[in-house]
């Protein structure tokens, strides 16, 4: 820190707040600590009685908090993101589109472990909307070693920490199974729930087929939707392990590759995820457990955004959902503002 004449302060960073008081009008901070003095600030500072200022004395190998904050921004920011102005070593990033937020967790931990800098994000693998805040970054001290910021850049040399995968348009077919529905003994209440959930995204519902418990009928109905251009097929009913529950077999008989039948999530343990190869396209076929019909949030809510961002769900992806995969069935559901599905 050094004292200099105010007229000579252009380009220097203030080491303290400067207060402005105008009777009956203003009482507050006119210039905050860390503000870099500009030519147009000089007359204002002089009018505040500041003939001299205490400014940061830049030393070789040291960066001002705002300079370093730009580096933090650059190692976080990717396409489809907008940044705030830098202020007191802080910059925030927001989404410029609707999409799925992805975070390189290893990079995030390594940068935060360097000390004197911080990056705080939302949870990954959850949908974000245009304008949603994604991350806040800050340099902790007023000045920081340039070498430390170089290390942060090196850790992220192969790409930013954050990314957003845009949601894509998908055509969806729904296959509802069960003799009780097929023969009109009960009214189907599963289909409307599924349609409401997928309509949160950019989808075209090609239709809903209601078929009997005959596996051949289920298989044929799935394949018919694929022939009509379906890019995702959702099957409801017949997903437990009872002898008369034939949907898993019917999905397998389409020739689809079964990723997993079962997931470490409650509600949603009996979820089936598979992929059918149609020329060069992989079409997800999912068998939805009965809980999706009546529970507020389930495994389907955790997987659907990723499917809509064209992510291929793997067995490892599903295994990781066990941490945080227990819904507490709160009387008032606050999802996604809760811990469900946010273990990793």
Structure notes:
- With 344 residues, the protein is α+β, with helices and mostly antiparallel strands.
- It folds into 3 domains: 2-55, Alpha-Beta Complex (Molybdopterin biosynthesis moea protein, domain 2); 62-165, Pyrimidine nucleoside phosphorylase-like, C-terminal domain (Aldehyde Oxidoreductase, domain 3, Alpha-Beta Complex), CATH 3.90.1170; 170-320, MoaB/Mog-like domain (Molybdenum Cofactor Biosythetic Enzyme, Chain A).
- The chain is 26% helix and 29% strand.
- It has 11 helices and 19 strands.
- It has helices spanning 42-47, 65-76, 105-112, 146-155, 179-182, 190-198, 215-227, 247-252, 291-294, 299-308, 315-320; strands at residues 2-5, 18-22, 26-31, 52-55, 62-64, 81-83, 90-95, 99-103, 117-121, 127-128, 133-139, 143-145, 162-166, 170-177, 203-211, 232-236, 257-261, 272-278, 281-288.
- A 6-stranded mixed beta sheet has the order 15-14-16-19-18-17, sandwiched between helices. A 4-stranded antiparallel beta sheet has the order 6-7-11-9. Strands 10-8-13 form a 3-stranded antiparallel beta sheet, with helices on one face.
- Helix 2 (65-76) packs parallel to helix 4.
- Its EC number is 2.10.1.1.
Total number of helical segments? 11
Task: Please report which band the strand proportion falls in: under 5%, 5-15%, 15-25%, 25-35%, 35-45% or over 45%.
Answer: 25-35%
CATH architecture of the largest domain: 3-Layer(aba) Sandwich
The secondary-structure element order is EEEHEEHEEEHEEEEHEEHHEHEHEEEHHH
- Broad CATH class of the largest domain: Alpha Beta
Tell me the radius of gyration.
28 Å
The CATH superfamily of the largest domain is known as MoaB/Mog-like domain
- Given the helix and strand composition, which structural class is it? alpha+beta
Task: Give the end-to-end Cα distance, rounded to a whole number of Å.
Answer: 44 Å
Would you give the CATH topology of the largest domain?
A: Molybdenum Cofactor Biosythetic Enzyme, Chain A
Strand order of the largest sheet: 15-14-16-19-18-17
Choose one word for the global shape.
elongated
Main beta sheet strand tally, sense and closure: 6 strands, mixed
Number of strands: 19
Are there runs of 5+ residues with pLDDT below 50, and where?
none
| Structural domain count | 3
Helix content: 25-40%
Mean pLDDT: 93
């Amino acid at each position: 820190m050094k004292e200099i004449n105010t007229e000579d302060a252009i380009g220097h960073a203030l080491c303290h707040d400067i207060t402005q008081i105008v009777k009956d009008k203003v009482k507050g901070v006119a210039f905050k600590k860390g503000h870099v003095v500009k030519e147009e600030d000089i007359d204002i500072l002089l009018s505040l009685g500041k003939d001299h200022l205490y400014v940061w004395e830049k030393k070789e190998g040291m960066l001002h908090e705002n300079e370093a904050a730009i580096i933090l921004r650059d190692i976080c920011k990717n396409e489809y993101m907008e940044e705030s102005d830098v202020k007191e070593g802080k910059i925030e990033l927001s989404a410029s589109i609707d999409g799925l937020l992805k975070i390189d967790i290893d990079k995030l931990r390594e940068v935060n472990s360097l000390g004197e800098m911080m990056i705080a994000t939302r949870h990954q693998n959850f949908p974000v909307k245009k304008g949603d805040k994604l991350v806040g970054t800050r340099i902790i001290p007023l000045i920081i070693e340039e070498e430390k910021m170089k290390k942060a850049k090196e850790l992220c040399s192969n790409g930013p920490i954050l990314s957003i995968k845009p949601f894509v348009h998908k055509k969806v077919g729904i296959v509802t199974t069960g003799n009780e529905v097929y023969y009109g003994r009960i009214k189907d209440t599963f289909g409307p729930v599924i349609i409401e959930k997928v309509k949160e995204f950019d989808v075209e519902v090609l239709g809903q087929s209601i078929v009997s418990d005959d596996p051949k009928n289920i298989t044929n109905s799935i394949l018919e939707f694929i022939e009509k251009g379906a890019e995702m097929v959702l099957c409801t009913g017949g997903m437990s392990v009872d002898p008369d529950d034939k949907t898993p077999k019917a999905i397998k008989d389409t020739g689809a590759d079964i990723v997993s039948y079962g997931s470490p999530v409650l509600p949603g343990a009996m979820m089936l995820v598979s992929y059918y190869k149609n020329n060069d396209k992989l079409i997800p076929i999912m068998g939805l457990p009965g809980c999706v019909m009546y529970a507020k949030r389930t495994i389907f809510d955790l997987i659907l955004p990723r499917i809509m961002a064209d992510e291929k769900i793997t067995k490892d992806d599903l295994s990781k959902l066990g941490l945080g995969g227990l819904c507490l069935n709160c009387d008032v559901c606050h999802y996604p503002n809760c811990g469900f599905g946010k273990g990793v």
